Amino acid sequence: MGFSTNLQGKIAHEALLSRQDAELRLLECVKRCVVSKVKCDRDYAASLSGAAAQGLKFDRSDELSGLCVVSKVKCDRDYSASLSGAAAQGLKFDRSDELSGSLVATSWRSMMEEMDCTAKAIRQNADAIESKCLDALNALYADKRKARKAYQEEHSRILQQFTHVSHSLL
Question: From which residue to which does any coiled coil extend (predicted)?
Answer without folding.
Answer: 112-154
